[in-house]
Amino acid sequence: MRVRIKALTRREFMTTASAGLAATSLAASPAPAVSGNPNALALKGGTPVRSKPYPSWPQTFELDEQNILKALRNHRWCTFDGEFIPRFEKAWAEELGVRGAVITPCGTHALHMALELLGVGPGDEVVVSPFTYIATVQAILMCRALPVFADTDLRTFQIDPDDIERRITEHTRALLPVHISGAPAHMDKILAIAQNHNLPVVEDACQAHVAEWRGKRAGTLGTIGCFSFQETKVLPGGEAGALVSNQQDLIEQAFIFRDFGWDPKSEHYSIRGTKFRISDFAAAVLMAQITRFKDICLTREKHSAYLREETRKVPGIIIQEHYPESTRQTHLDFCFRYEKEQFAGLGRRQVEEALNAEGIPVGGTYPALNREPFIEHTLDSRGFRAIYSQQRLDRYRQQNHCPHNDELCATSFAIDQHVLIGSKQDVNDIIEALYKVQKNAATLT
Ligand SMILES: Cc1ncc(COP(=O)(O)O)c(C=O)c1O
Questions:
Q1: Core-most of 105, 154, 179, 196, by most CB within 10 Å?
Q2: Ligand 1 pocket check for 241: Cβ under 6 Å
Q3: What is the 192 CA–ligand 1 centroid distance (Å)?
Q4: H or E stretch at 219
Q5: Ligand 1 proximity of 417 Cβ (cutoff 6 Å)
Q6: Cα 187 to the chain's mean position, in Å?
Q7: 445 residues of the chain, pLDDT tens digit each
Q8: CA angle centred on 95, ends 94 and 100, rounded to 5°
Q9: 135 lines ligand 1 (CB under 6 A)
Q10: What is the DSSP letter of 123?
Q11: Own/partner pairs, 141-144, CB within 8 angstroms, 24+ separation
């Protein structure tokens, strides 16, 4: 999650830490003198649990360099003549067991293109999760449609299917669940709702490259799945994304849309489209990264399973649960909530600062997107006022409440995936820091 923790992102935190600066430099107050007392919080002058950096990300190997060089020397660098783009599209479709994959410049564009291909446009509504990265919601707004937020299930941090049902209206044109933090949303219920209402499902699988629902890969269960291969993802290519589908017509339309609507079969600009093409270099990196990403996922999954079992024992820590039908998850973020009362009434930011000072790169998750200023800015824009009646916009505002999501955003934390790809000791340090901060929370009040 690219959420900013205070002035620094967690990525910057890692860089800062690996540059040898003490983790305590993140604290709001000046870095305290280290007293050497291992029992006192680092924010109170104690010894931090950890001063070593966590593994960096992305990881590169010989093959990345070889592929990049090959792409360079090919002198065929763009989408229609690059070597690696079609190779990766084939490899990713095969990996997922899906009919086709179409590379896009990023996951955001894959989502935008998916909605365009399904005909989502002005006047429509798309039911979406508010607990997600901003891209999911902006993709809907780019189609000049209204994002209708269904509340979050506080247990699993996923979109609440019962609330999806309640939010469907005559204007609903698609459902857009997100498989958040690498775990699947409740696809049985979502697909049943979609079928009842004859709606397509666009799965935002940008964080869920290997997640499975009843043994099937996330992103392949709905009408269209969208992936991100942005640098922080578990399969990184710098900036890139993909749209996948089992429907041949949608795959063909995606290739056409991505190239300004140019249909090579008819040799005409057959549909409205734009340029969602990429250069071959990102695909060259992806073709290298795909050869090892699943091995790294296995390490991450082993460590997160251990971290889940241990952190659930820490008083006041509530981890993100997975549905029993979810047969595989690899955390893009390891997410959990805390109970304020068990942390001496400390605010989320204070707990975050205390953990950061102990050397643990933890941050907040997401702001409550349905309450962020961009929503009102958009509703109040000339374009949206031209499309939607005042009455409809007022009704939208009145209904735009997700209390469970508000609570989740105010009380949740995330640890980036690469923190979990090192040693068991790396994980033990997180557990130790959580116990330490919980036990000593009162010293910060
Ligand atoms: C849930 C979700 N959706 C969409 C995106 C957008 O992907 P990209 O950054 O490749 O545009 C992201 C990226 O972080 C994401 O986490």
A1: 179
A2: yes
A3: 26
A4: none
A5: no
A6: 17
A7: 543 333 344 444 444 333 332 333 333 333 444 456 778 999 999 999 999 999 999 999 999 999 999 999 999 999 999 999 999 999 999 999 999 999 999 999 999 999 999 999 999 999 999 999 999 999 999 999 999 999 999 999 999 999 999 999 999 999 999 999 999 999 999 999 999 999 999 999 999 999 999 999 999 999 999 999 999 999 999 999 999 999 999 999 999 999 999 999 999 999 999 999 999 999 999 999 999 999 999 999 999 999 999 999 999 999 999 999 999 999 899 999 999 999 999 999 999 999 999 999 999 999 999 999 999 999 999 999 999 999 999 999 999 999 999 999 999 999 999 999 999 999 999 999 999 999 999 999 9
A8: 45
A9: yes
A10: T
A11: 141/374, 141/378, 142/112, 142/115, 143/112, 143/115, 143/116, 144/383, 144/384, 144/387
**Is residue 230 in contact with ligand 1, taking CB distance under 6 Å?**
yes
The response to whether residue 228 sits with its C-beta less than 6 Å from ligand 1 reads yes
Nearest ligand 1 atom to the CA of 139 is: 4
The pair of structure tokens assigned to 367 is: 């702001």
108 lines ligand 1 (CB under 6 A): yes
Q: Check if 178 has its Cβ closer than 6 Å to any atom of ligand 1.
A: yes
- pTM, full prediction: 0.93
Q: Which of 140, 206, 330, 331 to mutate to test the pocket of ligand 1 (most atoms within 8 A of CB)?
A: 206
